[in-house]
Specification:
6 helices, seven-stranded mixed β-sheet, Aminopeptidase, 181 residues, alpha+beta
């Protein structure tokens, strides 16, 4: 099956209504806790855009926007104090916003593409994640992508499960696999 996975920069003017809808979905609320009134969420998103240690993306499948991504440099993020971060370690946050894409196996190919994108920085040897420790479905997807469980960490907004994906392991896992589904 040929599918087109793409990421583009988040654009406040064009994407805010989409993010507002997604943050208020019952399957998103427990893990993102950003089901805020419009102006508060708008202010949160403005601050996220202005945060120079991260980049925000909208992910799409065959041209249909369906996911939100935050790719960030670990240095400068709250998570850097939970392990000995290297200068070019990157991290990832994601959500599948459109309900019709849930449970259909899209998370893994999307995650794989984003991690591959993060490894385009030749100095990056590790991509990390810290999903909510109760989010078993996403933890499973991270593991299938090549992430390893490290430890639970107490973050300001959740108990996360720190997970690492090393470049060498990722490249070995996916070197010859050009299929997604």
């Amino acid at each position: 099956m040929n599918i087109e996975i793409a990421f583009r920069d988040f654009d406040m003017e064009n994407d805010f209504s989409r993010i507002y809808k997604w943050m208020h979905q019952p399957y998103v609320i427990p893990f993102w806790q950003l089901n805020l009134p419009k102006e508060k969420l708008r202010n949160h998103m403005r601050a996220a855009i202005e945060d120079t240690h991260q980049s925000l993306y909208i992910g799409s499948i065959d041209g249909q926007p369906m996911s939100y991504w935050e790719a960030y440099w670990v240095q400068g993020d709250v998570v850097e104090k939970y392990y000995e971060a290297e200068p070019y370690d990157q991290g990832i946050h994601l959500l599948i916003g459109e309900k019709e894409y849930l449970g259909k196996g899209w998370s893994l190919p999307l995650l794989r593409e984003m991690v591959d994108f993060q490894f385009k920085w030749k100095t990056t040897q590790k991509v990390i994640a810290e999903p909510d420790h109760k989010n078993e479905k996403m933890i499973h997807v991270f593991e299938k992508c090549g992430f390893k469980k490290i430890k639970k960490i107490e973050l300001p907004d959740k108990t996360g499960l720190l997970m690492f994906c090393d470049r060498e392991d990722f490249e070995k896992r996916w070197k010859y696999d050009t299929t997604y589904l």
